[in-house]
Structures are given as C-alpha cells and as structure tokens.
Amino acid sequence: MIDSEKDWNIVKNIIYTYIIQNPVNRTLVLPVLITMAIAKYLEVLGASQTKEISRMIKNGQNDFSTIFIYSLVGIAAIVLVEMQSFLICKAGQSGYRKSNLNTYRYFLDLRPEEFSTVGKGEITSTIARKSQAVQDMIDVLTLNFFPTLLTLFFVSLEVFNGLGIDSAIIINICVILYAVITVRITTWRNSMRKSLIHAQNKASDLLIDGLYNYETIFTYNSEDVELEKYNLSLKNVERHSTDVARSLYILNLAQRSIWWLMSIVLILISIYRADQKATTEQFVFLIYIIGVVVKSLDNFGFMYGKLQAAIINAKLTNLTSRSSANDGYRTAYGFDRVLEVKDLNLEVGSKTILNNASFTIKYGDKVAIIGKNGSGKTTMLKSLVKLVNSKGLIEIDGVSVRDITDVSFKQLISYIPQNVVLFDDTVMANIKYGNSKIYDEEIFRISQELGIHESIIKLEQGYSTRVGEQGKSLSGGERQKVAILRARARNSQILIMDESTSNLDKQSESKIMKSILQDQNTTVLSIIHNMEFLNLFNKILWINEGTITEVQNVEEIDFESWYTNRSVKDVTA
C-alpha cells in the first residue's frame, strides 16, 4: 500500500508524533483496539447466527433463544463499532490541531529568503492540507485499515469452518486482486491529484494577489483583465478536478466487477461442489459473508486514496527552516562597543547591489543612510537583521552575527520597515508585541515623549481601538506611529529604521526623530528621505553604485547634485 520507504517513514512519523507522543491519544489506543476486535468478531459472527435463523425457518421451528442471540449479537456489534468511532475521533481532531500548529511554526521558522519564495495562498493551503493529512491518516489507520484487517481475518476463519478451504481461498484471492487493482488505479489518481493541488495553489495565489491589489485594479479599471486571468487559472483547476473525478468512476467500476465475479464463483462452487451440495443455510451464510466482505472493503479505494493523499500533503513542506538549519552557537548579552561591516556583497537576482562595502558604527552613533531609489539602502539594512542573505562579515563587538544565536541577536535589534503591516488586534496589543511585560504606564510615557499619545487617544477607542486586517483601519501614518512605539517599547540597543516616518506630517516626524536621536543609549541607523534631519545625525552613509561612502561635511553638500558631490570620503577602499 505504501510506495516507498520514505512514505513509510512519513506514516511512522505521524503515528509516533501524533499518537504515541500524545498522552491523550496514547491512552485511547488499547481500549479502542480491544473494542474494535470484539466488534468485528461479533459482526462476522452474525453470519453463523443468520445460518441458524435460516435453519430454524426451514424446519418450521419457533426458537426464541436463537432470535434473541441473533439480535443481541447484531446490537452488540453496532454499539461497539460506534463506540470505537466515538473514542477514536478525539485522536484525529487532536492530531489536526497539533499538526496545524506545527506547520504554522514550520513556516514561521523558514529563513527569510525561503519564506519570500512561497506565496501566501500556498502557505495557507499547505497548512490546511497538511493538518488535514494528519487527521485523515489517523482516521484511515484507526477507523478503516485495522478494522478491515480484523474483518478479513475473522471472515477467513468463518468461511473455512462453514464452507471449506476452497471458498476461503477464493475470497482471499479476490481480496488480493481487489487490493492490487485499487492500489494501481489510486496511484494513477494521485498523480492527477498532485497536478490538481499545484493548479489550486496557483489559483489561490492569483486570487490573493488580486485582493491585495484591489485599489490598483479599481483605479486602472482592470477588473475584466483580472477576472479573465483568474478564470484561466480556474479552468486549469476544473480540468484537473474532472480528471480526478472520472478516475474515481473507473475505480468503482473495477471494484464492483471483482465483487460480482467473486459472488458468481462462490455460488457456482457451492452449487456444483462434487463432495457436498450446498444447503440453504450455507447459501444464506455465503450471501451474508459476501455482504460483510464487500462492506468492509467498499471504502478501500477511498481509504487508500485518502492515505496516499495524506502522504502527498505531508510532503508539502520541504524548504529549509531555521529550526533545522545551523543556528549560531554564541549568545550575545549586549552591544557596547562597535558594529563592523567588512567586504559586504549583496545581490538581487543578477544585479549587484553592494560590492565589497565596509563601514564601522560605534555604540551610540546616529547614522543616516542616503542614496538614490533602488541603490540598495533597504536591502543593506535587511542584511544587518538577517532578512536577506549577504556575503562578507558583519560583526557585533568582534563576534560574527553568523555565530550569534538568532534569539539573542534579535534581542539586540529593533527593525521598523517602511511599509508597516499590523496584527488584527488592538493598538495596545500591537505596541506590546515585542515586549508583553511592559506596563501600560510606560507605554504612555514613551508615547508622550515621541509626541504620539495625543493622536492615539483621538482614535475611536484610543489604545483599545482594533486596527483591522493588516492594520487597514488606520492611516499609513498611524500605522507607522504604532510600529515606532512598538520598537521603542522593546528598548533594544540598536534601532534600524527604513524610512519609518515617510507617511508622517512634518511636525510629527520632527518630534519623533528628535526624541529618538537624543537617546544616548540607542544606536540608530535610519534611511532618510527628509534631508533637513541630517544635522541630527553624527554620521552619514551614502550608498551609490555599489559602494558605501561616509559624508564628512554636510554643510558643503549641494543636494541638487549631491550624487556627484566630491566632499565625501570613500570608506570602502
């Protein structure tokens, strides 16, 4: 049933992780197996009881005890079958929850360069599919696979005792033939299912991309264009979905043909057996047993398909996560001397952003970063916080950041992007995101120092105002204020700002920048779009044509032609 050793490892890993290691599920295993075995035995035992009922009717008897035993066996089998489902359903739901959480953690642990290659629609569908895969696999193994094995075992014993070895052999041959054909066709169907999943991911990404760009679509009057693009992707989904559905009907045809063939052969053997003709009771017994086998294996194709689909979905997350990659081995307890960048090389695709750039920042420095649009300012800052890959050496107090553990490294730095996205929660919850232990009073104090407090309390519910999905209930400037407060509330020693005040009015921007730059205990690196603030910084780095240079004399710069100004010192030499 399982195609490869790798697939077996996936099944074993799910059993171990979500059943054996789960205390609740582990305690359910033994009682469920006992209940399952008794239920399946009683279900098959019903065939013998049916034979006795048939004999009683044939002989014109009225034996109440036979009817009572038949009824008792049937009711007990029904109750126990449902009881096992009642007990084991908790395992599937628990596995779904734990897998959902683990897969979400997996994506959060991806390295930034890997995360950026995965579409948001693909991430959400992968989390849903992998979680469903775990639940499906647990359900298949506990509610289908093991019960089916028990049923076939007890059926073989009953048929051997009641009809002889030839009938038992015929049933087992048909079961094997049924299983082989089902596996073959289901494997074929799963290749189609892979194509379907890929098409669905593409359609989901396209839909989410359109929703994110609603305003652009609206203002450019391109609704029909986007709908046609989405319709083409849905046609691809429709084609693959149709193939998967049609293959199911082919599977059903093959399965039912095998059962019909088995029934005919067994009946012929019973009628034309040389040594002993079949009695009416045996014929009733045979019909009952065939019904039990067909019922037991009727969902085998669905079960195997579900198992294979679960294995496919379980393989979906195959990127390199930070949790599985080599993390640093040194803990950074603080920053108190110097941050050095040596021979930094950055590339985006085939484009070189920085070439052997070097600079030094001392503790407490206030560093402005200037340069043309597209010169690599943002990419350079992201390299300092490990959001993009870089070649070269970045050291904090003489220790390479590659050797510093991610956890301790992140404690040193707060990063504020230009385009702020907030969590769908309150303003206060977003501010406290980086420091949940900070008191509200401290938040108010920092907010007042930055000149932000008044604008927040003017919101509908002040600090308790919900910001909406991605913070869209707030203006761009309000989102930037929340992000700045969040960074300051974290009280990191290094603050990195990527044009973090670009959406603020001049008065608010001036108040915030002056407040931040007066803090002697915080080292600040900030991309500046408003050149009026340059005199607040003690160091200016100019990024231009793959080099970083340090501006020596701000007063001598003619900002209308500052890209070719000669009053700079090349510090990359």
Characteristics:
573 residues, alpha/beta, ABC transporter transmembrane region fold, Rossmann fold, 2 domains, 17 helices
Structure characterization notes:
This protein is α/β, with parallel strands linked by helices. It folds into 2 domains: 5-314, Up-down Bundle (ABC transporter transmembrane region fold); 338-570, P-loop containing nucleotide triphosphate hydrolases (Rossmann fold, 3-Layer(aba) Sandwich). Helices cover 60% and strands 11% of the residues. The protein is built from 17 helices and 11 strands. The strands form 2 sheets. The chain has a 7-stranded mixed sheet, with helices on both faces. Strand 1 and strand 2 form a beta hairpin. Helix 2 (23-58) runs antiparallel to helix 3 and helix 6 crosses helix 10. The chain is elongated and about 115 Å long.
Please give the structural blueprint.
Elements: H1 5-20, H2 23-58, H3 64-108, H4 112-115, H5 120-162, H6 165-212, H7 214-219, H8 223-272, H9 280-297, H10 300-314, E1 338-348, E2 351-362, E3 366-371, H11 377-384, E4 391-396, E5 399-400, H12 406-412, E6 413-416, H13 427-431, H14 440-450, H15 453-457, H16 476-490, E7 494-498, H17 506-517, E8 523-527, E9 539-544, E10 547-551, E11 568-570
Outline:
The chain is of the alpha/beta class and 573 residues long. It has helices at residues 5-20, 23-58, 64-108, 112-115, 120-162, 165-212, 214-219, 223-272, 280-297, 300-314, 377-384, 406-412, 427-431, 440-450, 453-457, 476-490, 506-517; strands at 338-348, 351-362, 366-371, 391-396, 399-400, 413-416, 494-498, 523-527, 539-544, 547-551, 568-570.
